[in-house]
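Handout, page 2. Input:
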Amino acid sequence: MSTMENTSDKVLCLRTCPADMIARGKINDVEWSFKWPTRGFVECPDWDPTPTCGHGLHGLLWGDGDWSLLKDEPDSVWMVVEVCVANLVKIDESKVKFRCGNVIFTGVKADAIARVLTGAEAMTEAQKRARDWGEKSGHYSTAASSGDSSTAASSGYASTAASLGYASTAASSGNYSKAASSGYSSKAASSGYASTAASSGDSSTAASSGYASTAASLGYASKAASSGYASKAASSGYASTAASSGDSCIAASIGNNGSAKAGPNGLIIVTYWVDAEKRYRACIGNVGENEICADTWYKVHEGKLIPA
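Output:
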């Protein structure tokens, strides 16, 4: 068994359910179903801590994992579950499972992503260490925080949030909103029409949701996710990932050993290092052409895009 370790005793898991809140599946040819609550306590009736699929409640820890496991239909319900670390087991790099938890949010994708990535209400450890926590709300509002484990949150039309420091967090919500975070394992989330999220630092995460939104993340193993028509996601750094969902979007992974995926009519760009030439080259794929499929991760192999 491999239980998760964390400086806090609580973590957040992201997951989705169909509109009827009933999760369904099959294990060893045996079909199962489980109805999730929209709020409050939830517990697995046949818990087994073995780090394998099944016999547990599943999700993505802090939104990190295989997003193809999440349902993205128009009526999908996006959920954030608060879980005690002692009740959580890592299955693999794509997902975790837990015995019980507390459903603290159910709603739309954009709000769930912002909640789980920033976790302003649940990341109690970060809040304890944040000396200059500040939050402003209103038209053209601005929030700025600087320092280790700092946090900044801004809500409102054309709002801006900036956070600088180790493990910093920035969240901004509203039309033309902007979120920027800098620091190791930093997180930036922005939601709104033409919103922008930028995060810099190893293992950093940037998520932006909204029409023509942009997400950019820089650093080793960084992640960028953008959702909305004509949205853009760009991630730079070794083994970085970029995912953009929505028609006519762009996903670009800049660095070596990266991967990217895009929605219908999207554009995929993945760079790779050619040692003999001492230079980077890029593989470009248009979704719907040359067997490039929508919502599929691609990497570079021998100078060509292949499913990751």
